[in-house]
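Students often ask what a holo structure prediction actually looks like on paper. The answer is less mysterious than it sounds. You provide the chain, you provide the ligand, and the output is a string of C-alpha cells encoding the 3D arrangement of the protein together with nicotinamide-adenine-dinucleotide.
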Amino acid sequence: MAHEYNPYENMLSTLEKAANMLGLAPAEYEALKYPERELKVSIPVRMDDGSVRVFEGYRVQHSSSRGPCKGGIRFHQDVNIDEVKALAAWMSLKCAVVNIPYGGAKGAVKVDPRTVSHAELERITRRYTAQILPLIGPERDVPAPDVGSNAEMMGWIMDTYSVFQGHTVPGVVTGKPIEVGGSLGRGEATGRGVLFTARELFARLGKKLSDARVAVQGMGNVGGTTARLMAREGCKVVALADVSGGVICEDGLNVEEIYQHCYVNRNFLETYNAPGVRHCTGNDVLTADVDLLVPAALENQLTEDNAADVKAPLIVEGANGPTTVEADEIFTKMGKYVVPDILANAGGVVVSYFEWVQNIQSLMWDEEQVNSMLEKIMRRAFAEVWDKAHEHNANLRLGANMVALARLVSAKKIRGIFP
Ligand code: NAD
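The corresponding C-alpha cells follow.
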C-alpha cells in the first residue's frame, strides 16, 4: 500500500468532528485524546530448539472513567503502538456506545502466531501475562481475544494470573473456554452483534436482510461467524476473503463448508475448491456487486484507492477501523450507509461484560438468555446512534461517536480531574 495510514490519527480526526458537532469545549474532551497508560514489555521466551527469542508486547489503557478498562489482545507480526492506542480508544468509545460500565484498553504481542509451535505460543502468552500483571485484574483491566488470539489462550491468561494471586480469578479475562468460566454465546457474540445491527439497518431502510446478497472479508472469529449467521438468516453470501485471497460464487457459497475449511481446520481460502466457485483477489471481494459488505479482517482495508469501486450500498464494520477517513468521506458522498465498528462489532464486548458479571457473582446463564440480552442492548444502541445521527444530519459513524463521547465526557465531568 502506497500510503501509510495511522489508525490513531484516524480515531482522533473522527473524535474531533464528533466533539465539534456536540459543541463541546476543548477542555471537556482534551484528556480523551491521550491514553491514560501505555506499557511496553519485552517477553523473553525459550523456543523449542533451546534458543531464546524476545518478543515485544504492549498494553494500553485509554480511559477508565466509566469503569474497569476492557479490551482484547492482538497477536500479529505488524502491530505497533499507534495501532494499539487507536484500538484502546475505540474500546472506550465502543463500551460507551452500548452503555456498559467499562473503559477501554488494548494489548498486543508482535508475533505471527502461525509461525510458532503450540507450546511456544503458550509460553509467549503466559510470559506476556506476567509482564502486564501490574495493570490487569477484574477491577482494573480485563483482556479478551482479538486477531490472532483465542479462547484457549484466554484460559492460559486466567491460569497465569490466578497462579500469581494464589487462587482462581476467572474475572481477570473474558472469552475463556466455557469449562473455566467462559460465557455461553461469547464465541459467536461479535458476529451475532454484526447480524443484529445489519437487521436493524435493513429494517430502518424498509428492506429485509434475508433478501440480501452479502460479501464478507475475514474468515476468523468475526467474519466466519458473521458469514454463517447471515447464511442461516437466508442471505446469499456470494463473496468471502481471507489473507490468502477471495472466493466468489454468484449462486451463493457453501458457508458452513468454508467455515469448516478455514476456521475449524485452519486452512486458507486459497486451498478451498468447489463447483461454481471462482478464486479472486481480496479486493474483488470488497468491491463485489452485493447489497451488504462486512469488512471483518483488519483496519485500513477500505481506502481512497478502492472506496469509489465499492458497489455495496450498505457496509457494516465487523473489524475495527476497516475504513480510512478518506474512504469514509467518499462513502458519505456516494450516499452509502456505514454502520461503524464501535457499534457494529460491540457484540463481543457486550457478552464479555456478561461473562465478567457471571464470573464475579459465580453465576451461569444459559445461551438463550445471553443472546436475548445481547439483542436488546444492540437494538437499543443502534436506535440511539440512528437518532443521534439524524438529529445532527450526520452519518452513523459520527452519530455513534457523538453518543459515546457524550457519555465519556459526562462521566469525566462528574468525577472531575484529580487533584
Ligand atoms: P481472527 O484472527 O479470528 O481472523 C482474522 C481474519 O482476517 C482471518 O481470516 C485472516 O485470514 C483475515 N485477514 C487478515 N489479514 C487480511 C487481509 N489483508 N485481507 C483479507 N483478510 C485478512 O480475528 P477476529 O477476532 O475475527 O478479528 C477480526 C477483526 O474484528 C479485527 O479488526 C478485530 O479487532 C475485530 N474484532 C474482534 C472481536 C472478537 O471478539 N474477536 C470483537 C470486536 C472486534
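The mean pLDDT is 97.
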